[in-house]
């Protein structure tokens, strides 16, 4: 006997419709002895905000403001991580130094011109982070002199997959500093 399934009722797609975005709820407060995972943005639960290397820096800055972040992963045309761009890169001296070397105007500067290249970035491994405390992450960021840290896990092919991010601003907020 063949079972029959009635079709579902279709409805008009309303103008102005948005879409669901994954969210991660981090604890409001942490201590230095809490698990580092309590302050990590888990990219397996939330979407990473990214930008293409060929994007003008003013557009990248607007994207950071719109999403309330201070770092973007920079992707190449094959959706591989080419580097990262921070608000400090955009608002600091890098644009002026680029213009001094290359000429042009501020509007000519692309993300690729001032980003930190992938080969210059050190990452943390998820397996190390899983056993770490917030204090370990804070000390790591301080020692590196960075505001952000990227967390990777190894894929089946041995390549890294970015799976998390740490932000000193986020950690300070959760520590109540």
Going by CATH, the architecture would be: Roll
Number of domains: 1
Give the strand line-up of the largest sheet.
1-8-7-6
Mean pLDDT: 92
Low-pLDDT segments: none
The protein's oligomeric status is: single chain
What's the CATH class, please?
Answer: Alpha Beta
Derived structural class: alpha/beta
Shape: globular
Our count of helices gives: 7
Largest sheet: 4 strands, mixed
What is the CATH T-level topology?
A: CBS-domain
Roughly how much helix do the residues carry, as a percent range?
A: 25-40%
Tell me the series of helices and strands, N- to C-terminal.
Answer: EEHEEHHHEEHHEEH
Strand count: 8
Strand fraction: 15-25%
CATH superfamily, by name, is: CBS-domain
Radius of gyration: 20 Å
What does this structure look like?
This protein has 177 residues and is α/β, with parallel strands linked by helices. The protein has one domain (36-175): CBS-domain, CATH 3.10.580. It is 30% helix and 20% strand. The protein contains 7 helices and 8 strands, in the order ββαββαααββααββα. The longest helix is centred in the middle third of the chain and has 11 residues, at 57-67. The mean pLDDT is 92.
């Amino acid at each position: 006997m063949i079972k029959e399934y009635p079709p579902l009722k279709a409805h008009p797609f309303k103008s102005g419709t948005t879409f669901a975005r994954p969210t991660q709820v981090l604890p409001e407060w942490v201590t230095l002895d809490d698990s580092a995972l309590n302050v990590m943005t888990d990219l397996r639960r939330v979407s990473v905000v990214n930008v293409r290397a060929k994007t003008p820096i003013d557009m990248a800055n607007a994207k950071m403001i719109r999403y309330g972040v201070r770092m973007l992963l920079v992707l190449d045309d094959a959706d591989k991580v080419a580097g990262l761009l921070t608000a400090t890169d955009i608002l600091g001296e890098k644009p002026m130094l680029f213009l001094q070397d290359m000429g042009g105007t501020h509007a000519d500067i692309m993300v690729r011109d001032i980003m930190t290249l992938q080969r210059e970035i050190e990452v943390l491994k998820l397996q190390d982070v899983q056993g770490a405390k917030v204090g370990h992450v804070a000390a790591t960021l301080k020692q590196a002199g960075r505001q952000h840290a990227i967390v990777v896990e190894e894929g089946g092919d041995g390549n890294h997959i970015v799976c998390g991010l740490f932000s000193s601003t986020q950690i300070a907020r959760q520590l109540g500093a």
